[in-house]
Write a structure and sequence with these properties.
Distance between the termini: 36 Å
CATH topology of the largest domain: Glutathione S-transferase Yfyf (Class Pi), Chain A, domain 2
Enzyme class: transferase
CATH architecture of the largest domain: Up-down Bundle
Keywords: Transferase
Radius of gyration: 18 Å
Order of helices and strands: EHEHEEHHHHHHH
Largest sheet: 4 strands, mixed
Catalytic activity: RX + glutathione = an S-substituted glutathione + a halide anion + H(+)
Organism: Meira miltonrushii
EC number: 2.5.1.18
Number of strands: 4
Length: about 220
């Protein structure tokens, strides 16, 4: 059986959520963060050379990186009907948008959040150099683009919930427990509604109940 090694309140929630959405059986092993450092414990770091979540085991296969893990599960454990239910076909009018938003999250938004957080810590919030300003503002450009995209849309890449939504939720919601940038989403009402809409999905609620029961639902609106 597929084994998901879940680090508490981390990007590995994506993998649990995917399996809950599609009804794919899995065994869940939960690892709590170090209470002093808030980092992964030694036993989790020992799972993979790069020491990051998520990590899965599937027989003799051990795999990390959430995008790779999700693609692997879709191709190895999901039926054609299950795959079609959460992806967009190449013949669909929304296919290009689906590809863009699927890759935008980790290639652009997630990285911008990490970079923004690092810059803010190093400068104490005093960003005077023009290059640093541009780096810090890139995250806000992402939110502005997302806000416009979600106007009159329930989902980011078409008319149904897809992998693009599942990937996007983590940096704009759960990740804000660690990097609350921007501090408030009040200027992004469409994004706030989107977060609430995804967080209200039954499969996501089950994910939280099973993987992070101590925190309850955290939307960080």
């Amino acid at each position: 059986m597929l084994v998901i090694h879940h680090l508490g309140i981390s990007v590995s929630e994506r993998v649990v959520w995917l399996c809950e959405e599609l009804g794919i059986p899995y065994e869940l092993k939960i690892y709590q963060r170090d209470p002093k450092t808030n980092l992964a414990p030694a036993e989790y770091k020992a799972l993979h050379p790069f020491q990051t979540s998520p990590v899965i085991d599937d027989g003799d296969v051990r795999l990390s990186e959430s995008g790779a893990v999700i693609e692997y599960i879709l191709n190895k454990h999901a039926s054609e009907q299950q795959r079609q239910s959460i992806t967009v076909s190449k013949d669909d009018k929304d296919y290009a948008d689906y590809l863009y938003w699927e890759h935008f999250t980790d290639a652009s938004l997630h990285g911008s959040m990490m970079l923004n957080s690092t810059v803010m810590r190093l400068t104490g919030g005093q960003i005077e150099h023009e290059t640093l300003k541009n780096l810090a503002n890139r995250l806000y450009l992402g939110y502005e683009m997302l806000e416009k995209r979600l106007k009159n849309r329930k989902f980011v890449a078409g008319e149904k919930f897809t992998i693009a939504d599942l990937l996007l939720f983590f940096p704009i919601s759960t990740m804000r427990n660690f990097i609350p940038i921007p501090k408030s989403l009040d200027n992004y009402p469409n994004v706030k509604d989107y977060i609430q809409r995804l967080g209200d999905r039954d499969a996501y609620k089950r994910t939280v109940q099973k993987a992070d029961p101590q925190r309850g639902f955290v939307s960080k609106l």
